[in-house]
Amino acid sequence: MPYLSLTEEDKKAFLHQIGVRSFSELIASIPQSLRDPKVSIPEALSEPEVQGLITRLGGKNTTTKDFLSFLGAGSYEHFIPAALVEIISRQEFLTAYTPYQPEASQGTLQAIYEYQSLMTELTGLAVSNASHYDGATSLAEAALVALKHTDRSRVLVARSVHPHYRETIRTYLAGTPYVLEEFGFDAGGSFNRQEFLEKLDGNVAGVIFQTPNFFGVVEDLEGMSEKIRANGSVMILTGDPLSFAIFRTPGEWGADIAAGEGQPLGLPMSFGGPYLGYFVTSQALMRRIPGRLAGLTQDADGKRAFCLTLQAREQHIRRERAGSNICSNQALCALAACSYMTLLGKQGIREVAEINCDRASYLRSQISKLKNFEVETSQTIFNEFRVKSKKPFAKVEEKMKAWKIFPGVALQPFYPELKDQFLVCATETKSKEDLDRFVEALEKC
Amino acid sequence: MLISSDDRLSFEKSRPGRRGVDLPKERFCAADPLGNVPQNLKRQGPALFPEMSEPEVVRHFINLSRKNFSVDTHFYPLGSCTMKYNPKVNEWAARQEKFTALHPLQSQETTQGMLEILWGLEESLKEISGMDRFTMQPAAGAHGELTGMMLVRAYHASRGDAHRTKVLVPDSSHGTNPASAALLGYHVVEVKSNSHGCVDLEDLKRHLDEHVACLMLTNPNTLGLFEKNILEITRLVHEKGGLLYYDGANLNPLLGIARPGDMGFDIIHINLHKTFSTPHGGGGPGSGPVGVKKHLVPFLPSPLVGKTKDGYVWEKRSPQSVGRVKSFHGNIGVIIRAYAYLRSIGREGLRQVSEAAILNANYLRVKLKDTFCVAVNDPCLHEFVLNLSAFGAQGVHAGDIGKRLLDLGFHAPTVHFPLVVAEALMIEPTETETQETLDQFVSAMKQIAREIETDPAIVKNAPHTLPVRRPNDVLAARKPILSYRDMVREKVLAAEVAA
Cβ of A335 and B466 within 8 Å? Predict the structure, then answer.
């Protein structure tokens, strides 16, 4: 095996130097009855065979490069700069450990620091952590922060928040004294203001909105932060971070925490991961942030240096008294997002968001002209919107196969009442011909 | 100078008008869709991102990368972290567009190759660990632990066993263990270690009662020693109705040698980024699949992949499932790497990996034992711990020795852990290092021992050759400066004070 360096001669010499007669003496503490289990896994393959196998397995997939894809719903197809791929392929980043030894990790630490800086700029909030697992877990941690910060027992969440995120929060809270309660949405998919206000009472620790929400609607949250603050609750916003380049940011809406999915910032869809959970808060919540933080300091010679900081919050110091059990972050994904935001820069980040809005808006207006489909989202959108098919959606999907098109994500599995409705996403990756071909295909089905 | 001394942030290299990427100019809408958007929905002020050309951005990050140690440049004898070589065919596999361009909500018919990998990796992990089923959702070891604790709670609740409120954790355990249990509201009770760093059976019995929900155990433990009473421990806990959780952080020496499932563990998490060779990425992404025995299968997060005569499918959710612990299906890129690794090493490679890991650790232990005090100088498995308190007389701590090693071209071992050993230095060489590298490490350690005798200041003030030396973490925590804006604000304030 090419990954091992000890030859048979080395092994014999090692045993001799260690002072044992046989390898089994080294594992004498393992009870005999446990030793040498039968382990049936496939036999070893050489590298060319592994490459052949992976290629064959890949060939059984039909990807968003094989089909024209309008799938979104929390995982988005975006342009990824070639320079980004080269940067994150640097083995000094890829094969490094967590930067607990700052002298040996200034590269990773400065990159995290820059990521944190970029995320505070993008979200309009004060303090970002070094990243979290993904959107769902990041939001679940935000709910926990709100519960601990307020010492209250209920979290309110809009039903227009991504279904996986709501389910994950529910999983995290199951069996605890804490309760997750939902408030609904209106016919257009905006959150139900009245229902929300009725549920906002003295037991509410935190409130979670998504904007743009799961249906693509850019929510109007006017007046919400004042109400939530007056109630003593924590306001948590989630949403596509790319949209914050043009739409009102969590900070500008008065949110205390922005937590969600960072995948649109330069990470491939990769069937759902690894992604990147962003977690950004107001100054007031700094010491409650879960996970790692990189900070600026000076070294022993007065030079600028970066290190992990506020570690007293974390599990390796506080053990059972830690606010969160988080150990790893998604450092390499944060590096990807950092490179993405740096490459796009001040102008580019805005432009790419504008192009998303342009592509989706164009597609929406074209689909709205079709007689067999109704656009259900009339509000401001970013890159997604909701469509109702007059024919069963499963049939539409089936017909689209001949066109090599993934038409969108069916909504009924998540919202039983939204029969034959689907979510359509169009990003900067789509050309006018792509969009027109999709409209033509829909028209003919 | 080989490594750039430029420590400016990207923001400080920015110049208005520069850009790193060009984007399409054409707009498809006749009128700008943002034109009609109400003002209150729009972003009010710009995001002050840096403005840099592509070559500048690339040079910026490549120069940063050169300020890092990494497995591909340095030996990392980092105990409990298993910093083995990350095979490049794994990277090649994970980057194939046939996987990266898959959307997670595509139909199962269009993702058969992907599902086959998920299924195949699960099958192999089942065999290796002796468990009955795995979920691939957890994104990291700590996330796996949290998932495991959810399973513990769901299991006891399903039996109407609501009075189990305690989770037992050895005092030598990783910090994530107590933190994960506490997050679910469990009362964490520490079990003492004996002089061998193993579970003190008498202390365990004292704490064992009908309130115990679970014992979380790392085996081999954080001293690299196998719990030789493991069968007794699992029997005692089971007798009291508790479950056993296996922290898979130290699985590397047991491949093909012994299986947690056979030891009596009910739940296990596996760190694919340790034993199964996927890169650490500077702190993630990892992957922490959780495996269970039959009686806990109904509680696993859903969905799971199944194999039918018509191909691979997402199975229907069990009514008792704890639910989702993450969006979508797990850290797929990491899972593909681990799959490629297992197909490369194969059945016969498993034992070779663990044997070499054990041999390398014992070789280092024996080479170092005359100069340094080994906490427990018995044959170890994949790692061992030095007790460096003897150097206290010269004012040298374990951490100082770690810093000095950086000067000599080695990443520091794990320092000041486990907590049960004073001045601990925890060393795990892994199977992928050569004898030559191990010998160089031994020489470096011996040189440091001599330096402590002759000129301890060299060690106490190390490192001397790296871009920075001993960043002041007290200052960093007292006055947190966590972003470029914080930094600018600090500068302005300092200038005002000076004026």
Answer: no
- pTM over 0.80, yes/no: yes
pLDDT of A313 over the 70 cut: no
Q: Which CATH architecture has domain A82-340?
A: 3-Layer(aba) Sandwich (3.40)
The predicted pLDDT at position A52 comes to 98
Domain ranges of chain A: 68-80+346-443, 82-340
At residue B394 the predicted structure's pLDDT band, cuts being 50, 70 and 90, is very high
Q: In chain B, what's the furthest Cα-to-Cα distance? A: 80
Give the number of other CB atoms < 10 A from CB of residue B374: 18
* Helix segments in A151-192, DSSP class H: 163-173
Mean pLDDT, chain A, rounded, equals 96
Q: What H or E segment, with its residue span, contains residue B386?
A: strand B384-387
Residues 6+ apart with CB under 8 A from B167: B149, B152, B178, B181, B186, B187, B188, B189, B212, B213, B214, B215, B216
Q: Mean per-residue pLDDT for B359-368? A: 98
Residues A171-193 as b/e (b if ≥16 CB within 10 A, e otherwise) read bbbbbeebebebbebeeebbbbb
B62-78 pLDDT per residue, tens = 999 999 999 999 999 99
* CATH number assigned to the domain with residue range A68-80+346-443, chosen from the 4 options 3.90.1150.10, 3.40.50.720, 3.40.1160.10, 3.30.9.10: 3.90.1150.10
C-beta separation of B368 from B374 below 8 A: yes
pLDDT in tens, B199-226: 999 999 999 999 999 999 999 998 999 9
Domains of chain B in start order, with CATH, are 89-344 (3.40.640.10)
| Chain A interface disruption, residue of B29, B227, B482, B484, most A CBs within 10 A | B482
Dist. CA A361–CA B320, nearest whole Å = 43
* Interface predicted TM-score (ipTM): 0.97
Q: What share of residues in chain A are helix, strand, coil (percent, to 5)?
A: 40, 15, 40
In B107-166, the residues whose Cβ lies within 8 Å of chain A are 107, 110-114, 116-117, 120, 123-124, 127-128, 130, 139-143, 145-146, 150, 153-154, 157
Query: Is B25 near chain A, with CB under 8 Å?
Result: no
